[in-house]
């Protein structure tokens, strides 16, 4: 079977949303997908987009996708490549498509002078963790990822910290 990667186009927005939803179902978070086809079109294919999507095809049929963007490391003084999502449909798992996408992204990182290639994985996703470790990736367990989203993001941006945890309310301001 032949797999091929190609840049996604705006016409792929419905397919990308379909893959995003399948990934969210697998990650037990389907209820968190609020993106629409229009959102995907605007966020991935507008002139101001900072992310890039690739479609993986097997024998001409789409079987997966990945979305990545460039980050920056102050410690390295270089940009990095961050993989936001990588998904291979169940029927194509074990075909090497996931490894092909990761290798392609690693090559992009090398070609563009990135100092690192990073991504996140849910701590319960043993198959993915095992796969990532098999290609030489290592967990960064000393770092804890934080997120501000939705109403908490809007409230904080507006200066409202009434919903902050009691511990956070006692933290002195950064200088």
Describe the structure.
This protein is α+β, with helices and mostly antiparallel strands and 175 residues long. The chain is 34% helix and 23% strand. The protein is built from six helices and five strands. Strand 3 and strand 4 (78-88) form a beta hairpin. The radius of gyration is 18 Å and the shape is globular. The N and C termini lie far apart (57 Å). The mean pLDDT is 93.
Structural class: alpha+beta
The number of helical runs is: 6
**Overall mean confidence score, pLDDT:** 93
Number of strands: 5
Can I get a quick summary?
With 175 residues, the protein is an alpha+beta fold. It has helices at residues 13-26, 37-45, 97-111, 126-134, 150-157, 166-169; strands at 3-7, 51-58, 61-73, 78-88, 117-119. It is globular, with a radius of gyration of 18 Å.
Topology:
Layout: E1 3-7, H1 13-26, H2 37-45, E2 51-58, E3 61-73, E4 78-88, H3 97-111, E5 117-119, H4 126-134, H5 150-157, H6 166-169
Parallel strand pairs: 4-5
Antiparallel strand pairs: 1-2, 2-3, 3-4
Helix pairs in contact: 1-2
Characteristic terms for this protein:
5 strands; 34% helix
